[in-house]
Every structure is written in C-alpha cells, then in structure tokens.
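Morning - 2-phosphoglycolic acid inputs below, output right after.
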Amino acid sequence: MKPLVIANWKCNPVTTTEAKRLFNSVKEGLKNIKDVEVVICPPFIYLLALKANSHKAIKFGGQNCFFEKGPFTGEISPQMLKNLGCQYVILGHSERRALGESDEMINKKIKAVLKEGLKPILCIGEKDQEFKTKEIKNQLRGALSIIKISDLENLIIAYEPVWAIGTKNPCDFKDAKKANSSIREILAEFFGESMAKNILVLYGGSLNSEIAAGYIKESKMDGLLVGGASLDAEEFVKLVKKVARALIPSP
Ligand code: PGA
C-alpha cells in the first residue's frame, strides 16, 4: 500500500491564479512520483480549474461536505464533489468541530460520503497535550456509529492532536506511534482485528519536510495530512519526496 500524503489547503489561497500557480508547481515537482499517493484538497471553488489542468499522479479531495442535497444554503453535497472529480473528503477537522460540528453530524457526513463511493478522511485528536484514549474512543464511536462493515475499507483516519495543529509543535514520533496503536486497538474492538488492520491511519499536525518521513518509518503511520506546509510548493514537493525515499529499504 502506497503512503498517502494529503494537502489540506484550508481557506487558501485567495485567488484562482494563485491556486493554479501553487498547483502547477506541485504538479511539476511530483510528476514522476509513483510510490506515494498525493491528494490535494483545495477550497471547493478551485476544484474545477485545477482538475482541468491535472496530472494522473495527483488526486483531489474536498475539505468538508454536507450529508444531503436540496434546500441547504451554502452547502455542498458528496455527489457534487464526486462530479468535480474528488475521490476523498476530509471530515470532522478540529477547525470545523470548533465551529460547532458534532460527532453526530460527522457520522451523517461519513455515511453520505461512503454512499457516493468516496473516501472519508475522519480527523480525530485530543485537545490537551496528552493522548486520552477515552476522548479518542468517544470521537471514533460517535463518528463511526452504524457504518456498514463492508464500507470500512474506504475509511481513513487522520490522527491530528489539536494542540499540534498549526503550532510548530508536532507530536513526537514515539507518541504518534503509541497513538497509532491505540487507535488500531479501538478500531479492532469496534470492527474486529482483520477489518481494523485495513483502515489507514494518518498523522497530521505541524508537519514539514524535515520530520515527515519519521512518521512513516518510526510511527508506522500509513500517511500524512499536511496543512501549512502544503501551501509552499517547494516544501510540499520536498516533503513528498522524502516520504518516497523513506520507503527505499536501506542496503
Ligand atoms: P498544520 O495543519 O500542518 O498546519 O498543522 C494540519 C491540519 O490541520 O490538517
């Protein structure tokens, strides 16, 4: 399984021209990358323009979506994202939870996204700088209640400790490894060992090109969710290349 590196552009950049410039530089830098699955999640409004000028090495994702279509002003449905060429959707990001998104809403969104055959990237993470199994378990239980076992193969979990997001204070490799094992144990308890081991677990929070590969090699993460560093094309390309290089076994 290729490691997954997801770029979360959040509410950036401000113009389509800048979005295209950023995307084109990333595309150019990564055009020969085969060993890493790269996904760009730009603001919705840029998806069409970027998709039109895309490259097969890069996939697209949304940063959120709603769980229904119809009279819901300002919302966007999973079907719309699919029609725009997205294969992934970030859900339950702590910045959205801070705006009032509940586990119940996230659960509805995950179901709607899975129904469209898209891959939800469920963000979970504790607020205090200490892994709290109970908090993580409650987030997973709430977001994943009544999900069909057969749908789980499309589920991706992003462990993003809230204190590590945008702070230049990333979780260290050892703690990320412990969190990874705890998340896998919880998933195994909920869905059984064999199903749980197929669910990808990613790390996110203050990533940069210097430390990224360590989460794959040492923390045994299946991939990364990158915020700030994905807005600098050179830095993001470097990060992805380091992850690709980390996969080459040492002689
Ligand atoms: P950061 O953001 O890399 O800027 O910390 C990560 C995220 O919010 O997904």
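Note: The two ends are 21 Å apart (CA to CA).

O.
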